[in-house]
Amino acid sequence: MKAVSLETYEIVIGLEVHTELLTNTKMFCGCANQPGAAPNSNVCPVCLGLPGSLPVINQRAVELTALTGLALNCSIEEFTRFDRKNYFYPDLMKGYQISQYQYPIARNGWIEIEHDGQRQRVGIRRVHLEEDTAKLTHRIDPATGRPYSLVDVNRAGVPLIEIVSEPDIHSAEQARLYLMELRSILQYLGVSTGNMEEGAFRCDANVSVRPIGSAELGVKVEVKNMNSFRAVFRALEYEAERQLAAIDRGESVTQETRGWSEDRGITVSQRTKEYAEDYRYFPEPDLPPLALTPQWTARIRMQLPELPSARRRRFVDQYGLSPYDAELLTASRATADYFEETVRLFDRPKTVANWMTGELFRLLNASGLGIESSKVSPPGLASLLKLIDEGTISIRAAKDVFERMFQTGESANQVVEALGLRQISDAAALEHLVDQAIASNPKSVEDYRAGKVQALGFLVGQVMKASRGKANPAVVNSLLRARLDAQQRD
Ligand code: ADP
Ligand code: ZN
Ligand code: MG
Predict the structure, then answer these.
(1) 198 alpha carbon – ligand 1 mean position (Å)
(2) Which of 211, 281, 342, 443 is the least crowded, having the fewest Cβ atoms under 10 Å away?
(3) What is the pTM of this model?
(4) 363 and 379 together in one domain
(5) Are 124 and 165 contacting, i.e. CB atoms less than 8 angstroms apart?
(6) Which residue's CA is the nearest one to ligand 1's atom 15?
(7) How far does the centroid of ligand 2 lie from the alpha carbon of residue 91, in Å?
(8) How confident is the model at residue 427, as a pLDDT?
């Protein structure tokens, strides 16, 4: 029997997110901030940490950090400063990282998440600005079997912000929702790509458990090395379970840092408190403190775009979408823009939503593309929907047309012509097919006259088949009725 369970214990999680900023240049030098460039091509004495070089603060990075703070409902500090965080590691060119310790740019905010139909706020403790480290790639020499590491200094000095939550999260699922919402906000702001696989958005998690009702926090374990949302979710589920099991055995949780092992699906101890680093923080002597005046902050606030939560609500109110569709269509700014542009050209929001969440998302998923690179543009989708609306093509045919538009980039009209899919709605062109169907199915005609309405459906099907799907079913239906009812009166 298990004494310790989620009925008597609760999970407590606080998340630390690092995200690279989308600036043109690095944090303290003029080198390009260009992920994907050839290794060590964007380097200079400052980001290489050569003695005698001096850093200069990137103003845009400070603005983007404040913008992020405001979007996360934080207050922007009037006094802010950089500090040196000293440690020794091959990815750190100078032997210290310029970061912020006592005086971060933003503090005391929150993000709202919705879980099981309940809205909940997760506190944001602080948002601070720092520089990224160089990127290490670990390899094994195939000849000797010896491990070695490659250093790419391009990433050293790229502006990085750290967003630290309060320990307000109580399950892996809530953590996932928090991260999704945070990433979406960063993308709406244009602050970060939010790409976790490429390392532009990274998350460390602090996890503890405590008896429900206890006022004190339990001993926390810091979990690192999670490279996807799924990894964060799995690692948190595992780690909480591991701690509960330890307590259940009468052991206590040790304060330590553990690494998530994706292959094994477990967390592994990396270092304990005894070996925790002492970073010897002190004020960065080569940079001035910054005074962020309320006037300056007010100007930044004016740059805030409509954020995901507001846009989600507006999609429900203005377009009558379900909360679920609104959520899917606002998850990224590009998707929400695509939707609104299409609706401007074809004013049936529900239809547009169905086509986007159905066909478009299906094809994007299958091809691994983002909506930005879709060959079907909003005007393309709108013109296809008009063709359906006018009865030029059937809905069935429209799905094939859409798929080909998506693959080739042709317009709806081009595909309809090329595939010969134009629907036949002209009664004169359909009459002989209707007569044929009646003549060759006397049994169905009899059934229909005897009051079996389903027989009509069968006859419509025969005409559709004979027209190879091109007949407009509504027109066929009324032609058949007219013909059969007239014959009956004779
Ligand atoms: P440290 O000094 O180890 O960096 P902080 O107090 O600065 O710890 O908190 C870092 C992160 O850990 C924050 O996101 C915070 O919410 C979270 N945290 C702090 N204590 C706990 C705890 N007992 N359980 C879970 N998360 C915690
Ligand atoms: Zn540089
Ligand atoms: Mg800390």
Answers:
(1) 26
(2) 443
(3) 0.84
(4) yes
(5) yes
(6) 14
(7) 15
(8) 85
SS3 203: strand
Q: Which of these three, 245, 277, 299, is where a domain ends?
A: 299
CA distance 223 to 232: 9
Q: Where does ligand 1 bind, in terms of residues with CB under 6 Å?
A: 12-16, 164-167, 206-208, 217-218, 220
Which atom of ligand 1 has the smallest separation from the CA of 206? 26
Distance of CA 486 to the CA centre of its chain: 60
Rounded distance between C-alpha atoms, residue 180 and residue 170, angstroms:
16
Q: How confident is the model at residue 1 (pLDDT cuts 50, 70, 90)?
A: very low
- Picking from 419, 438, 459, the residue at the C-terminal end of a domain is 419
239-268: pLDDT as tens digits: 999 999 999 999 999 999 999 999 999 999
Each residue's pLDDT tens digit, 424-452 = 888 888 898 999 999 999 999 999 988 88
Determine the residue of 220, 256, 271, 272 to mutate for testing ligand 1's pocket, defined as the one with the most ligand atoms within 8 A of the Cβ atom: 220
Kindly give the distance from the C-alpha atom of residue 420 to the centroid of ligand 3, in angstroms, as a whole number: 65
For the chain, how many structural domains are there in total? 3
Residue among 167, 136, 147, 197 at smallest CA distance from 370: 197
Please report the atom of ligand 1 found closest to the CA of residue 164: 14
Please give the residue range of the domain that contains residue 467: 427-489
CB 267 within 8 A of CB 225: no
Model pLDDT for residues 325-378, shown as the tens digit of each residue: 999 999 889 999 999 999 999 999 999 999 999 999 999 999 999 898 999 999
| Of 204, 205, 202, residue with least CA distance to 192 | 202
Number of CB atoms found within 10 A of residue 93's CB: 20
d(C-alpha 426, C-alpha 417), whole Å: 17
> Can you tell me the distance from the alpha carbon of 297 to that of 293, in angstroms, rounded to the nearest whole number?
6
**DSSP class of residue 155?**
G
Task: Give the number of the atom of ligand 1 that is nearest the alpha carbon of residue 166.
Answer: 16
374 token code pair: 């879709």
Ligand 3 centroid from CA 33, angstroms? 27
Q: Which bound ligand lies closest to the C-alpha atom of 15?
A: 1
